[in-house]
Amino acid sequence: MLVIYLNFSIMLFLFSIFMLLMMMKFLLLKMKIFIEINFFMLNTLNFSMMLYFDYKTFMFMMVVMLISSMIIIYSIEYMMMDIFKIRFIYLLFMFIISMLLMICGQNLLLLLLGWDGLGLISYCLVIYYNNWSSYNAGMLTILTNRLGDIGLLISIGIFSILGDWNFLMLMINNNKILFFMLVLSGITKSAQIPFSSWLPKAMAAPTPISALVHSSTLVTAGVYLFYRLSNMMNFNSVYLIFISLLTMFFSGMVASFEFDLKKIIALSTLSQLGLMMFSLFIGLKSYMFFHLVIHAMFKSLLFMCAGLLLHSMFNNQDIRYLGVMNYNYLFTLVMFNISNLALCGFPFLSGFYSKDLILELSNLNMLNYLILLMFYMSIFLTIMYSFRLIYYMIMNYMKFFSMMTCFDNMLMNLSMLIIFFFSIIGGSLYSWMIYSSLNMIYLSMNMKMLFNMMIFMNMFFMLLFLLKLNFNTFNYMKFYMFMNSLWFMNYFSNLLIKNVLIYGMNIFKLMEKGWIEYLSIKFIYLYLLNFMKLEKIVLNIIIKIMIIYLWLILIYMY
């Protein structure tokens, strides 16, 4: 079993190095490659598979393979006591293949193949632990993502009119229905409001899956789709900007009152997805991709560090039981806090180089002041829940010490070390390599230092808030229930899915068990049955008549 895990990990790591070399070659030579494989042509409809490669494609594939290889090494220890290790590694490998198809695909058929593969395998991984909680979370996940798949299927139908499913056909087809369906696909996969409730529920999956699937790959599929379509479609819409800002604000607010460690990290992922969507919708698409790549690194590291702590605490996820973790998990806590600071954009860590650029350029973008106010409030909430998490990790009192196995696992730490390296210097490397010739951004000193001032002011306010807040008051409990239900979005999603399932059951009874049966097989069966009954009656009458005739003949003869 160990050999299989190591072979997969080494293979993916070598592929990630190859992708890094190809990325550097394509970047230096400014190369772009289209590969089209034609299968057949039906009248005017061309069935083909088109692949597109540039340096950003190779960069994203390199990030996916690097994180996947480290996750597999991490899983050797984390999944040691699991009885379905082979199933786990094969599901993980199939997920990686689906993700690579989605990254490289340039037409809707290939995109649908990777897109549906991501959704189906994600469902299998969410229900991996085979309990009712996982089943409910998996059902919510797959049914919400099915809405996006419906949008993609309708888009394929609209594209069929043009005779090709290539993305380039969008340049000659200004169809509002097509635009709406593609936007629906993207926002459901990337868990934007009102489809946000499935992402925190998907934390029922094992932590290695959360580190790969629900932080850096699956949830960024919608953002990546919008990035690829941004050259052919105009996403500069005030409604889309409002959706992304509301997602940022809502997830930051809920994360500031959440006590489940994995859900806090999931909500932070939701907040960063809102930031990526916002930067894309205001025209900063290259900076959005920069943040997407950097975010994948430090967010997967954040999940891996949290998984090690939860693994040592016998799967207890309540942060109120944590505290003074620096005494027993020094190396893990250093990596956790560094990735947490990178998340909130602490100066000169990897997240700073992408977030600070987006903040500065949003000031130069002539946006409405209400949009900017909501944007800065969302950034403030990001810093708030990040320092709240650091407080509970270091300054809180330990309440679960007798149940803990206090040690740093060397194999897990080894897998986290490479991602930790990129979480520190990845932003500066990317910035110097890609954006070395940027124009100077002119801002006043106050605006330039605003983000740094927000970080340090938030440290003080968050500490004051945590020390003074009374968690036992009734008013707080009502407010906490509102936050814990994701602004009642959980009830809305459950009600929606319940109604859809009830509607499907009624359709099944009326159509499958009703009209379709009576008009198809059951109709033929009943027709033949009645015909045979009629035939039996006719035969009985004929036999009786024949007997009467026979008796009459016998009487006449004698």
From TrEMBL:
| Domain called NADH dehydrogenase subunit 5 C-terminal: residue spans | 385-556
Q: Which GO terms describe its cellular component?
A: mitochondrial inner membrane
Task: Tell me the enzyme class.
Answer: translocase
Q: What is its EC number?
A: 7.1.1.2
Q: Name one GO biological process term.
A: ATP synthesis coupled electron transport
Write the record's keywords in alphabetical order, separated by commas.
Electron transport, Membrane, Mitochondrion, Mitochondrion inner membrane, NAD, Respiratory chain, Translocase, Transmembrane, Transmembrane helix, Transport, Ubiquinone
The NADH:quinone oxidoreductase/Mrp antiporter transmembrane domain, residue ranges: 106-380
GO MF terms here are: NADH dehydrogenase (ubiquinone) activity; NADH dehydrogenase activity
* Matching InterPro entries: NADH_DH_su5_C, ND/Mrp_TM, NU5C-like
Transmembrane feature ranges: 6-26, 58-76, 88-103, 109-129, 150-171, 177-195, 207-227, 239-257, 264-282, 288-310, 330-349, 369-391, 411-435, 447-467, 479-503, 515-532, 537-557
Could you tell me what reaction this enzyme catalyses?
a ubiquinone + NADH + 5 H(+)(in) = a ubiquinol + NAD(+) + 4 H(+)(out)
Membrane topology type: Multi-pass membrane protein
| Subcellular compartments | Mitochondrion inner membrane
Q: Which PANTHER family match?
A: NADH-UBIQUINONE OXIDOREDUCTASE CHAIN 5 (PTHR42829)
**Free-text function comment from the UniProt entry:** Core subunit of the mitochondrial membrane respiratory chain NADH dehydrogenase (Complex I) that is believed to belong to the minimal assembly required for catalysis. Complex I functions in the transfer of electrons from NADH to the respiratory chain. The immediate electron acceptor for the enzyme is believed to be ubiquinone.
Tell me what this protein is called: NADH-ubiquinone oxidoreductase chain 5
Upper lineage ranks? Eukaryota, Metazoa, Ecdysozoa, Arthropoda, Hexapoda
